[in-house]
Every structure is written in structure tokens, then in C-alpha cells.
Amino acid sequence: MAMETVTLSHTAALARLGHALSDETRARILLALREAPAYPSDLADALGVSRQVMSNQLACLRGCGLVEAIPDGRRVWYRLADGHLAPALGDLLSLVVAVDPGCCGPDCTCA
């Protein structure tokens, strides 16, 4: 199998995904949108967050290029921006990882 050349755009895209997944609410939004597109108010209710928090997190995910807003009359619904993202999230979910809860936080001493 030939190795694909990794470019700065590849690493930037991976960093954006990592940033998105670094926040539990954003990760939950991506997983919810993996199942089906949704309106922000429905996502907020389903995830138990305020509509302001949902709006801020969706803006972040849009900025990362991971979700897109689709106008629907006076409302807007959201979906994953790329068809490759849903299976990639599924692959990530299938990984089994043992994580030390004290590791990789703001005061990480793993080194």
C-alpha cells in the first residue's frame, strides 16, 4: 500500500477535528449529527444544554468546517459537512482506549 503524502492542510484538518473533539459538548453534537441532521433547539434539548451554548458550539464546529448550516425557511438545521465524517467518527468510537483520568488534562504530567 502506497503512503499518502501528508501536507500542512492534512495536519491542519486533523488539528481542527482534534479541537472539535476536545470539548465534550462538541463531541456529543458531532455524534448526534452522525445519526441525523437536526435543528439547534432540538440538539440543545437532546443534549441538555442551553440554546446559547448550542449556538456557540455550532459556530465553533462551522468554523472548523465540520458542520454546515442549511436554511429552512426562517430556521436553520445542521448536518455534518462531509460524508466521510460519519464513518470516521464511527471508527473512532470503535477504538478501545484506556485513559488515565489524570492524563492529558490542563495539568498533564504524563511525560
Describe the protein:
This is Transcriptional regulator. This protein has helices spanning 8-21, 24-35, 40-47, 51-63, 85-94, and strands spanning 67-72, 75-80. A hairpin with a 2-residue loop joins strand 1 (67-72) and strand 2 (75-80). The chain is 51% helix and 11% strand. It starts with 7 loop residues before the first helix and ends in a 17-residue tail after the last helix. It has 111 residues and is mainly alpha-helical. The chain has one domain (12-94): Winged helix-like DNA-binding domain superfamily/Winged helix DNA-binding domain (Arc Repressor Mutant, subunit A), CATH 1.10.10. The chain has a two-stranded antiparallel sheet with strand order 1-2.
Helix content: 40-55%
Determine the mean pLDDT: 88
CATH superfamily: Winged helix-like DNA-binding domain superfamily/Winged helix DNA-binding domain
What shape does the CA trace take?
globular
Assign the CATH architecture.
Orthogonal Bundle
The Rg value, from CA coordinates, equals: 16 Å
SS-derived structural category: mainly alpha
Measured by DSSP, the beta-strand proportion falls in 5-15%
Question: How far apart lie the N and C ends?
Answer: 33 Å
* Oligomer status: single chain
What is the number of domains? 1
- Give the count of helical stretches: 5
